[in-house]
Automatic annotation (TrEMBL):
UniProtKB keywords: ATP-binding, Nucleotide-binding, Transport
Keyword ATP-binding: yes
Entry-linked PROSITE patterns: ABC_TRANSPORTER_1, ABC_TRANSPORTER_2
Protein name, UniProt field: ABC transporter ATP-binding protein
Pfam families: ABC_tran (PF00005)
A GO molecular-function annotation: ATP binding
Domain ABC transporter: 6-233
InterPro entries named among the record's database cross-references: AAA+_ATPase, ABC_transporter-like_ATP-bd, ABC_transporter-like_CS, ABC_Transporter_VariousFunc, P-loop_NTPase
Organism for this UniProt entry: Streptomyces hintoniae
Recorded superkingdom: Bacteria
Amino acid sequence: MTDTALEAAALGLRYGRRGADRWALRDCSFRLPTGRVCAVVGPNGAGKSTLLALAAGLLPPTEGTVTALATTPAAARPRVGFVAQAKPLYPQLTIADTLAMGADLNPGRWDTATATRIVAGGDLDPTARVRTLSGGQRTRVALALALGKRPELLLLDEPMADLDPLARHELMGALMSQAAGHGTTIVMSSHVVAELEGSCDHLLLLGAGQVRLAGEIDDLLAAHRRVQGPASTALDTHQIVESRTTGRQLTALLRPTGPLPGALTGAPPTLEELVLAYLRSPQAPGTTPAAPGKAAA
Ligand SMILES: Nc1ncnc2c1ncn2[C@@H]1O[C@H](COP(=O)(O)OP(=O)(O)OP(=O)(O)O)[C@@H](O)[C@H]1O
């Protein structure tokens, strides 16, 4: 039994031919312990889908390594569930055929009750063909297939994007109970940070193909402060993620490197405040396992 669900070391992927210099991901290093629910966030084109595809073994790295459940992604595949952004399924199959295929492909692992319950939650007709389903209904079937596999590691690329609010709530609940009941590690990309707050305990923030923040969310929040005070307050000994001056008032989100000036009041940010501050400030220094000197503040 491993205690590492996902680990990347100097991982990089370049699309296209050599020399084209289109690095989608470069020099990514992080470790995700098992049993976590990890949010993967970042702007469009940051490399989230690429990272998930590498972790699922669908793309070979151009450089560096990635392991899933302490082995190669290909060797881990029977124990890993992956739902890609496009939710690919066989359009000509019915929902019932699709779940039967899941059972055939996962002998000894398949959880009929869970898969059937997820499909039934959407009030879907099992005899309906996949090609007749809406985007959100296809997502539901794709999640039923992934959860029915009872994976140890579940990789989900924007799983909630096309679900209605009730379906989001219900399926997020199904994912959380899978994590709590079976110790499944879930890695989930999303642009809706508010949705991740309260569900996720680990964060991977990507920007321009690099890992900018990686770690336990509680540790990351505790290491930052959202502060306000007089505009004249000097902050330059601290790592400033973003700062703004309005008249005589300064507000900033920073990573303290020592005691804060007494003129400032502040508190740890929420997850949404932290992520938005980093997204608005692409040049702000991040914290990754590859830069341990910056981790403690
Ligand atoms: N098949 C491909 N061929 C060439 N370049 C690609 C391909 N897929 C992605 N890229 C490029 O790789 C980079 C990372 O893309 P990726 O899809 O991983 O980002 P993302 O963070 O998932 O974005 P989004 O939030 O928009 O889904 C982007 O610059 C993109 O243009």
